Amino acid sequence: MTPPYMIWRRHATPASTGYARNKADLAQFWEGADLEIEGAPVDSAAVRFNIFQVLQAAGRGGKTSICAKGQTGEGYEGHYFWDAEIFGLPLLGHSRPERARDMLVYRHRSLEDSRRHAREMGHERGALIAWRTISGRECSAYFPAGSAQYHINADVAFAIEHYMALTGDSAFLHDHGAEILFETARIWPQIGFFNPRKDGAFCIHCVTGPDEYTALVNNNFYTNAMARQHLDYAYQVAHALMADAPDVFARIANAIGLHEDEITEWRRAADAMYLPYDEALGIHPQDDSFLDKKRWDISGTPKDKFPLLLHYHPLTIYRHQVCKQADTVLAMVLLGDQFAPADKARDLRYYEDVTVHDSTLSACVFGMLASQVGRLEQAHEYFRHAAFVDLGDLHKNTGHGLHMASLGGSWMCLVNGFAGLRFVEGRPVFSPVLPDQWQGLSFRIRVRGRIILVRIGKNRCRYRLISGAPLTIQHHDQPLELKPDETIEAATLGKEPA
Ligand code: IFM
C-alpha cells in the first residue's frame, strides 16, 4: 500500500510550477496594463504599484470580490462595497477581463441574499445589493450611511454595462448579467414615483448618495442619474434578448416572474427621471435640500478636526452643506457624455468649495473631471493625491489597510481622466490631454480581445494595435481605423478650460 506521504507527493504541485503559473499570469496582466508617465518616474512607479495591488486583491472564480482594503489590513473587516465595481473593476476589465467577470459572477451568486435583503427592506420583488458584505448578506450597522445607499444597485448595473462594452461577452449576459440587471432594476419603481408636484417627474426619495456627509435625502442627483442609466440599459437588454435570444429571456423572466409591463414601466421611469438643476447657479444640486443648508466653514475648521466624522455627531454634519466625497461630480464623470462641458465645469467649481475629501474615494474623481474640463493643473494635483494616498499615508490610516478605490482611481485618472477614454455606443473614444509636468503618458489597455497602446505626447498622440483584429476607435470626433502593426497619429488638443 502507498504510504500517505507518497500520495501527497504524487498530487502536490511543486513550488516551481506554482511560480511559473504566477509568473505567466502576471506577464499576461502587464502585457495589457503596462504604463509609463514620461518625465515623472516616481508617479509611474506609484501607479504601477497601485494597480498591482488591485490585481492582487481581486477575487478568483466568482466567489469573492475586492474588499475595500484588499487583503492588506483589517479596516472595514474585509467587506466589499460599491468601491469594487466603480473603482476596481475598470482596471481589471481593461487588463484581466476574466477577473472583472468573476467579480460580477460573485454578485450573481449572491442574488438570493440580495433578494432577501430587498424583502427585509419592504420590497415585494427584485434584489437590493447589500451595501457592505462578504457572503452577500447586509452587514451595515448604521443604515443612513449603509443600506440607504441604494445607488449600489445602479453601480453594479453600470459595471455590467461597462464590462459588456469592453468584452461583448454575451454568454455572461445570458447566464448572469441580465438576471442581475433585471432583479436590481425592479427596485427603482418600488422606491420612486411619478410626482405630480414636479410635473409627473420620476422622483426617488429618502436615499443616501455616495456622499456620506449628507444622508436620507430626496432626489440625490447621482442616484437618480445612475438609476436612469440602469433602467434604460435593463430595458434595452430585455428587448434585445426578446428579439435575439427569446429562450434566454423566457428562462430568466419565468425564473423571476418578470412581466412585460414592468419593463415598460422601466422605460417610463427612465424617461421621466427627475434630475435636480438650479437655474440661478447653473449647477446640479446634490439633492432637493442641499443648497438650502448652511455651508460648513471648512477653512475655519481646525486641521485636527478632520476627518469630520471622527469629531462631530452625524446630525451636526447632516445639517450642513458639506461633502465627504465626490457625489454629483462622480455622476458627471461616469455619465460624462450626458452633460455639457460648461455644466461639468460649473459643477466641479461648486463642489470643490464644499467638499472636504475625508474619503479617499474623492480625489481621483475630482481629478478625472478636472482633466475633462481642461483644468490640468488641478487634475495633476488630484491625481497625485490619489496615487500617493497609501505610499505617502496621506490619510494617516494606511496601517488599517490600503485603499483599493483610490489605487484603482489613480489608474482611472490616467486612462479616463487625462486620456479621456469612455465608450460611446460601444466604441472607445479618447479625448487626450497632458499636464505640463509630464513629457508624455503611455499605457496599454485591452478592449474586445485586442491590446491597444496609447501614447499621449505634448503635441501628438499615437495609437497602435498591439494584437487582435482591426478596430475603429475615436480620437475626439475623428474615427480612426486601427490595423495590426500600424501606428496612427493625431494632434493632442490642448483644451481651454470650459
Ligand atoms: O464605500 C466607501 C464609502 O463610499 C466611503 N466610506 C468608505 C467605504 C469603503 O471604502
Automatic annotation (TrEMBL):
Residues 421-482 form the Glycoside hydrolase family 65 C-terminal domain. One of its GO terms (molecular function) is hydrolase activity, hydrolyzing O-glycosyl compounds. InterPro entries: 6-hairpin_glycosidase_sf (IPR008928), 6hp_glycosidase-like_sf (IPR012341), Glyco_hydro_65_C (IPR005194), Glyco_hydro_65_M (IPR005195). Residues 48-412 form the Glycoside hydrolase family 65 central catalytic domain. One of its GO terms (biological process) is carbohydrate metabolic process. It comes from the Bacteria. This is Glycoside hydrolase family 65 protein. The lineage of its organism: Bacteria, Pseudomonadati, Pseudomonadota, Alphaproteobacteria, Iodidimonadales.
